[in-house]
Amino acid sequence: MASTSDIRNGLCIKYNHDIYKIIEFLHVKPGKGPAFVRTKLKSLTTGKVLDNTFSAGHKIDDVRVETHTYQYLYAEGDQFHFMNNETFEQITLNKSILDAPDLLKEGTNVMVQINTETDLPLSVDMPASIILEVTYAEPGVKGNTATNATKQATVETGATVNVPLFINEGDKIKIDTASGSYMERVKE
């Protein structure tokens, strides 16, 4: 058993007969009344996100998890195949358990959290950013960069990302995996 003071991002808890992962939290101490913790929880079975408020000192039932590094191998429909980097065992995960499946490039290392009680994978943590090559982008018009205008670009994984007008086909860009947004152009 843990309490609200142990709440942190990535903590897995049992709540309402389901397992949730804490995505965001905020400790709030109002001037009047007791303190509380405002959280955003993501269901690891359905993928639904809900907001919940716990009063300070509330006991929460945490789930013991182990984190292992897995390498993404390939996708087969909605099934994604990963290999453990230490034991070389392969696992297959459904697309719904992944946060940003369209940004996964073959060979990318991810962190998989596994429930120690049931040995079932709970969630997949992608790296904070990923570098992908632009395979299609409309050509930018010279002199049109005075504003923060963006255009759609397709990257090598098939995902579409809004990028600045100066990005062209063949450029490598860094993408934030949490929001799926463009961060910067990468020079090699």
Automatic annotation (TrEMBL):
Molecular-function GO terms, alphabetical: translation elongation factor activity
Compartments, record wording: Cytoplasm
Metabolic or biological pathway: Protein biosynthesis; polypeptide chain elongation
Residue ranges of domain Translation elongation factor P/YeiP central in the record: 67-122
The keyword Translocase is annotated on this UniProt entry: no
GO process annotations (BP): peptide biosynthetic process
Keywords for the protein's UniProt record, in alphabetical order: Cytoplasm, Elongation factor, Protein biosynthesis
Pfam families to which the protein is assigned, alphabetical: EFP, EFP_N, Elong-fact-P_C
Gene Ontology cellular component annotations, sorted alphabetically: cytosol
Keyword Transmembrane helix tagged: no
Residue span, Elongation factor P C-terminal domain: 130-185
Family listed: Belongs to the elongation factor P family.
HAMAP family: EF_P
Protein role: Involved in peptide bond synthesis. Stimulates efficient translation and peptide-bond synthesis on native or reconstituted 70S ribosomes in vitro. Probably functions indirectly by altering the affinity of the ribosome for aminoacyl-tRNA, thus increasing their reactivity as acceptors for peptidyl transferase.
The protein's name in its UniProt record: Elongation factor P
Encoding gene per record: efp
